[in-house]
Amino acid sequence: MMRRFFMIMMAVVAMTGMAATVENEFFTISTPDDSWFLANDDALRPYGARVDVTRLDAKGATLELARIDYIEGAFDPTLYLQKQVVGKKDLFCHSATDFTDVYPSTMAGFEAQGVGFKKTSNNYTYECEALAFNAGYGTFLVITAHRAGEPSLIGRIVGSMKCKTDVTPLYTTPLMVQAAKKVVAKHHLPIGNNEHLSGVELAPDSATLTLKVTVPYITKESVNVPAFVMAKRDAWFRQAPEALKFNLLLAAATREHKQLRYLYVDTKGNEIGTLLIYPEEYEQVEQLEAERIASEEAARLAKEEAERAAKEAAELAAKEAANREAEEAARIEASKPIIYEVKRGDSLNKIAKQYGVSIQDIKNANPSLKNDKIQLGQELVIPRN
Question: Considering the domain boundaries, does residue 168 fall inside one?
Answer without folding.
Answer: no
